[in-house]
Amino acid sequence: MTNQTKDISQTSAVTSLKNKYQAAIVGATGMVGQQLIRMLIDHPWINIKIVAASGNSAGKKYADAVGSRWCMDFAIPEAIAKLTVMDADAIKDVAKDVDIVFCAVSTSKEEVLRMEDAYAKEGAFVTSCNSAYRLDPLVPMMIPAANPEHLEILKEQRKKRGYTTGAIIVKSNCSIQSYVIALQPLRDLGLKTVRVHSEQAISGAGKTFITWPEMNNNMIPFIGGEEQKSEIEPLKVFGKVDENGITSATSPKIKAKCVRVAVQDGHTAYVEATFENGVPTTDEILKRWAEFAACSGLPSAAKQLIHYRTEQDRPQPALDVMTENGMAVTIGQLKADESCISFTALAHNAILGAAGGAVLATELAIQKNLIHRHCI
Questions:
Q1: Is the pLDDT at 134 greater than 90, yes or no?
Q2: pLDDT band of 216, cuts 50, 70, 90
Q3: Measured between alpha carbons, how far is 295 from 143 in angstroms, rounded to an integer?
Q4: How many CB atoms lie within 10 A of CB 61?
Q5: From the CB of residue 1, how many other CB atoms can be counted at a distance below 10 Å?
Q6: How many percent of the chain have pLDDT more than 70?
Q7: 235-252 tens-digit pLDDT
Q8: Cα 239 to the center of its chain, rounded Å
Q9: Torsion angle of C-alpha atoms 79, 350, 373, 51, degrees rounded to 10
Q10: CB–CB of 139/132 below 8 Å?
Q11: How many Å apart are CA 174 and CA 129, to the nearest integer?
Q12: What is the rounded CA–CA span in Å between residue 53 and residue 269?
């Protein structure tokens, strides 16, 4: 094991490397872990070397450990099916053979804090799909299209947390992807307030209609903690970085309502926004959305991040959630009057909002030469 780092800031350099970055998926049998397999199985930069889960699954072949809980729309890849699942708590054994740990465990906040810190102290670059570190000022909560500069805090994180080659970044809540990405190109117009009604798919709770049959023909008008996350987390994404950490923005003021609906995949947000400097025209907004280019050169990035649909009844989860392989935001129903704008935005909560967004953030860290290679 070495602390060697390669300069791979250019895409061509990354894709020409003979040896890919080696990764572990911790929490590999869960829904987000399965989506991480989707995103990484043929990845040009990253190889899945280890799958890990709870002690109940440890020691089994992955296919046997996941069993009937496999819920993807493709078969378990053969290379993954035959891997022996490691114990997620075997920190040293997992970390010694990988550069990156994608963490998607289902456990308490205290256990997540302990586990992810331990992996970072063992030298692994941790990309977390959990919520425990989201509001930590030294941990960037990444939506790469909105806050790529937040990765700059990793130098201070490593210094203050005693990490050498390790680090921790975290994904934001899946509910905020669609409207944060939609609002990012409009922020310099003086964004003042945002009201959002979020209709969230059952996969956001780690469920399917088979495992949660009471959701058929149903809606639950409350998701514990979700509205607070939806109001607070965008402000950290919009925040500023200095040597002391990430300071959340004070505007826009956000008010959210979140409900669970009978949809398998795709969180839909109905958004109203006001502006300090007058309401922009729909033409101006559509131009900004069409020209919003982000995450250039990253293999998982959408070719066009924001897709606008002109049909009156779009976006729809059944028709639009897999746009750009689930890595794009689809928007429709844009209106503007003298007081505000309104629109409907849809994003795949388990891909862009979780596994795909985590992979994209990790690719950005690779592009910025922030991940130290051990397995060369």
A1: yes
A2: very high
A3: 10
A4: 15
A5: 11
A6: 95
A7: 999 999 998 999 999 999
A8: 18
A9: -40
A10: no
A11: 9
A12: 33
Contacting residues for 232 by C-beta, under 8 A, at least 6 apart: 135, 248
How would you classify the pairing of strands 167-171 and 141-142? parallel
Cα 267 to Cα 334: distance, rounded to the nearest angstrom: 18
Judge contact between 293 and 305, C-beta under 8 A: yes
| Predicted local distance difference test score (pLDDT) of residue 375 | 64
pLDDT in tens, 165-183: 999 999 999 999 999 999 9
- For the record, the structure tokens of 284 come out as 């101006």
Calpha distance 376→371 (Å, rounded): 13
Q: Which domains does the chain have, with CATH numbers?
A: 11-174+355-367 (3.40.50.720), 175-348 (3.30.360.10)
Angle 291-172-90 (CA atoms, 0-180°, nearest 5)? 130
Q: pLDDT averaged over the chain?
A: 94
8 A C-beta contact, residue 44 and residue 14: yes
pLDDT tens figures, 332-343: 999 999 999 999
- In this structure, the chain runs to a length of 376
> Which residues are designated catalytic?
174, 267
Q: 77 preceded by cis ω (within 30°)?
A: no
Distance CA 44, CA 52 (A): 22
CB 139 within 8 A of CB 157: yes
167's CB contacts (< 8 A; 6+ apart) are 120, 125, 126, 154, 157, 158, 370, 371
DSSP at 173: P
Q: Which of 272, 246, 268 is nearest to 258 (CA)?
A: 268
- Amino acid identity, residue 230? S
User: DSSP code of 164?
Assistant: S
Amino acid letter, 151: L
For tokens 């003979």, the residue is 18
